[in-house]
Amino acid sequence: MASIAELDVLERPPRADLEAIAELAAKVCVTPMATINIITDDAQHQVAAYGFPAAICRREDSMCAQVLDADTPIVVTDASLDERFRHNPFVTGVLGSVRFYASHKLTTRDGVDIGTLCVFDDRPRELDDAQTEALGTLAARIVDVLELSLRSRQLAESNQRLQTFAGRVSHDLKTPLTSLSMSLEMVREQLSDGADPAVLEGLLERALRGSARMAAMIDDVLAFATLGGGLQTEEVALDDVLDEAVADLDGRLRGVEVERGPLPAVQADAVQLRAVLQNLLDNAAKYRHPDRPARVVVSAARSAVGWRVSVADNGPGIPEAERGRVFESRVRLDRDADRAGGSGIGLDTARRVVQAHGGAIGISETPGGGATVWFDLPD
């Protein structure tokens, strides 16, 4: 069972389904008031009530909190005569004048007591066995409702993650697939023009490397569906990873000058890290400044936590106010990205991969104009 906070009832208005159960409890027990309480470390939260407005009180003032560790049901004909409750502010008149009080704990399937269903009156009365049993049945149904709501929300979130995952797979596989297709197309042209064996061998080798990278990416991205659970870390030479990313982006990087500084070896998942560099290089190639030749510089420097890798372009840049938002899924700042095939998930993918490695990612301005996307990888 998840935590009380994950039940998502403390900060919301009373739910109609819970209010209906509270009303049913009052009518079954023939009392004017009933409430469903969730009890935290410091407070009692009346998440639904019948016969009075729901409120919050201190845990030490709660009648139910006093008996949360006791066996239930608890049925008290006159609380003013009961040693457990006679000095309670809900009995003495400070907060209320409760006389009849009956409660049943709300216990999750994992055996955790999270609160109570209670009915009460300002005059003494009794419950028969059938009413007492019904109070317990209704308490169990409250827990069922809360847990079903939680599972429904988790299912909706899972479906959203699945949709994002499907988009990410499509996005990441397009790059090596494009490289593979271009190589095979060039092989076909060579065969029709009288093939040079050396050229053919080079093209086929390039196609095979692209195919191998695509197969590795498929295996890795499936293992990484839960993001963070499927990292296969090893010592990775960033120079080699960058070489592969540039090779896969050969067609997209035409006309772009790519420079690199000294790059280290890091502990990382090579396939996932290549996806990050591919996304950053692809964005740099996609968003070019109209008045100057495109240029990208990939470099690395020691940081407080390990290594900071930077991909700096000389494009139009990203406004400072938008630099955090571009890492959100499917956010695109430039509609021209539609014509370039942008899906708006590239930087979100990069953020999630870097965070899964225990690092951080951000954007700063390139000196002279442009955007520098950097990410930190811990030692």
UniProtKB/TrEMBL annotation:
It holds the Pfam family GAF_2. The keyword NAD does not apply. It is found in: Cell membrane. PANTHER family: SENSOR HISTIDINE KINASE GLRK, TWO-COMPONENT HISTIDINE KINASE. Its EC number is 2.7.13.3. Gene3D superfamilies: 1.10.287.130, 3.30.450.40, Histidine kinase-like ATPase, C-terminal domain. It catalyses: ATP + protein L-histidine = ADP + protein N-phospho-L-histidine. The keyword ATP-binding applies. Keywords: ATP-binding, Kinase, Nucleotide-binding, Phosphoprotein, Transferase, Two-component regulatory system. PROSITE patterns: HIS_KIN. Residues 168-379 form the Histidine kinase domain. This is Sensor-like histidine kinase SenX3. InterPro entries: BphY/WalK/GraS-like, GAF, GAF-like_dom_sf, HATPase_C_sf, HATPase_dom, His_kinase_dom, HisK_dim/P_dom, HisK_dim/P_sf.
